[in-house]
Structure formats: C-alpha cells, structure tokens
Amino acid sequence: MRFRYAFTIAAILAGLGIHGADAKMYIDANGKWTQKAPKNYTVNTRPIERQEVRYSGPEKPGTIIVDTAERRLYYILDDGKA
C-alpha cells in the first residue's frame, strides 16, 4: 500500500515538472524573463550545395548514410559515387 501511495505521489510530481519545463530566456538588458526569441536572433538558412564525391564503402546503391560528425547525408550511387 505504501508503494502505491509513493508511486502516485511521484507520478503527480513528475507531471508537474513537465509543465514547468517551458523554454524561457533571461534578458539581461531589462532584467526580465521572456518566452519569445529576441528579434535579432537569426538562423543560418543558407542551403548547402550538393556535390558528388567518391565512395568506396560496403553499402549498396540507394543507401543513405548519415555522418553526424560532418553534418552531412550521403546517398550512395552506382560507380563508386555518393
């Protein structure tokens, strides 16, 4: 019975913790918290140009390789290219 009570309390507290996880930012200039992104915030939306590269791995043509270290996707083609 005690375990069920403790589990119920833990579930309620976990639910309250999720609600408090709203993304807020502290703006030092005015000393306030805000939920909106600053107007001078920009995202690099410049597209990365496609290029064909040599590939000599074991994957078959049609395979997509995700290289997280280089932040690149490789689509394997015929003739040792990607």
3D architecture notes:
β1 and β2 (32-34) form a beta hairpin. The protein has one domain (2-75). The longest helix is centred in the N-terminal third of the chain and has 18 residues, at 2-19. The protein has one helix at residues 2-19; strands at 25-27, 32-34, 64-67, 72-75. The chain has a two-stranded antiparallel ribbon with strand order 1-2. It has a two-stranded antiparallel sheet with strand order 3-4. With 82 residues, it is an alpha+beta fold. The model has no long low-confidence stretch (mean pLDDT 78). Helix content is 22%, strand content 17%.
Task: Describe the structure concisely for a colleague.
By secondary structure, this protein is an alpha+beta fold. The chain is 22% helix and 17% strand.
What is the rounded distance between the termini? 61 Å
Classification by helices and strands: alpha+beta
Global mean pLDDT = 78
Strand content: 15-25%
- Strand segment tally: 4
How many helices in DSSP terms? 1
Strand order of the largest sheet: 1-2
Major beta sheet summary: 2 strands, antiparallel
| Low-pLDDT windows of residues | none
Order of helices and strands: HEEEE
